[in-house]
Design a protein that fits this description.
40% helix, binds flavin mononucleotide, alpha/beta, 6 strands, globular, six-stranded parallel beta sheet
């Protein structure tokens, strides 16, 4: 069983988070889950009240199917700086911040560790583990662009929420599948979330 941390913050694109969670749960992963206050709000604003944090498991089963029950997750408070993933001595092999707000991006870029999301990301960088950041904003200011550069220089993978259209998406779920597929690929999972490019 692989253990991956998932952080959901208050940028638009909550569906990228739920699709990524479901795809990892289907693959029998254990997810260490942290959701910021605005991440909680965006889940409800964009996916409906059914995606409220206390109903998230039921939402994932209803939207993505029973197979998500193959995995498990533990939800931590973003205020809990004593949680397992706040320490480098835990077994969490990688972390995905999806979607990542510009505020959280700034906090990670500058090593602020003001909350569990920023601290867990900091741990991934200092331990040289996989950190995938999925930022979403447009247009971007120079500080935001520089913060992405800082994170990339520190070893994070910057994977902007930029779904492609060459796979001929028909639905919003197709777009979410594309981003989740990119994330799974970067974590080393085989997947068929979108058709591979045949040239
Ligand atoms: C409806 C809504 C959409 C938002 N979309 C974005 C966004 O796409 N990108 C972003 O950086 N911030 C966005 N924000 C602002 C962040 O939620 C805000 O900066 C917040 O403080 C982020 O905190 P967090 O990183 O702790 O979740 C949005 C806020 C709201 C209410």
């Amino acid at each position: 069983m692989r253990t991956i941390a998932i952080a959901i913050t208050g940028a638009s694109g909550a569906i990228y988070a739920t699709r990524t969670m479901a795809a990892l749960l289907e693959r029998e992963c254990h997810l260490e889950l942290v959701i910021s206050d605005y991440g909680r709000r965006l889940l409800r604003d964009e996916l409906g009240d059914g995606a409220a944090v206390d109903r998230l498991t039921e939402f994932l089963v209803a939207k993505y199917g029973e197979r998500v029950k193959k995995g498990s997750h533990t939800l931590y408070s973003n205020k809990d700086l004593g949680a397992r993933i706040a320490s480098g001595s835990q077994n969490c092999e990688g972390m995905v911040v999806v979607p990542c707000s510009m505020k959280t991006l700034a906090g990670i870029a500058h090593g602020l560790s003001r909350n569990l999301i920023e601290r867990a990301a900091d741990v991934m960088l200092k331990e040289r583990r996989t950190l995938i950041i999925v930022p979403r904003e447009t247009p971007m200011s120079l500080p935001q662009l520089k913060n992405m550069t800082l994170c990339a220089e520190a070893g994070a993978m910057i994977m902007p929420a930029m779904p492609a259209f060459y796979q001929m998406p028909k639905t919003l779920d197709d777009l979410a599948d594309f981003m989740a597929g990119k994330i799974l690929g970067a974590l080393g999972f085989a997947h068929d979330l979108y058709p591979s490019w045949e040239g």
